[in-house]
């Protein structure tokens, strides 16, 4: 028996799409960039360290096409310069993944300079990046914000990071309603524990490897698979929020 035509789900392809990714040189951002490039998308990334950028671009170019730059997203002018460079290289873009962030502790554990820097990178740069994306992306486009499950798991050492990520969660939901009618889908991914240098010094490399092997910690590639899922959905639908956690981790 042949299924009715209206039951068919028309998944989108990554082939030929163009993506700007903040923080694409290490961790989650790098995994996303490599996966999208392998799927046929052209990518443009940024990061802090020239060595990390060179290494990430080598991995991207082994499977696809991409470029990037070293920059400092805490500086609003450099956020604009990054989007200018990405748009020029890509010839326009229809995917933006806002991912670059740094770790932050409790409010009373941080000095004022560290607090200002965390806000600049983790919140202000997110909103500025979304602003550039909203005005430049071609429809039907996808804007994906990488948040954190820390927005919902609150503790005395997470006040700044959790507060910022809670703000990003609210921003993402409201932005979906604002941009959807304009042809831009907005989604939020909230990962649990992911192996990366953001886990230092509490969880050193060897402990991270052990937790990943025990499936108590995620890899960046797991979050990249979630991004691919969001990007390949039919254009009429939006996955507003995607929570990805380690299967075997208790208490998260």
From TrEMBL:
Coiled-coil residue spans: none
The entry's keywords: Oxidoreductase
PANTHER family per the UniProt record, alphabetical: 5-KETO-D-GLUCONATE 5-REDUCTASE, ALCOHOL DEHYDROGENASE, PUTATIVE (AFU_ORTHOLOGUE AFUA_3G03445)-RELATED
Name the UniProt record assigns to this protein: NADP-dependent 3-hydroxy acid dehydrogenase YdfG
GO molecular function, one term: oxidoreductase activity
CDD domains per record: SDR_c
Organism encoding this protein: Sphingomonas aerolata
Entries under Pfam families matching the protein: adh_short
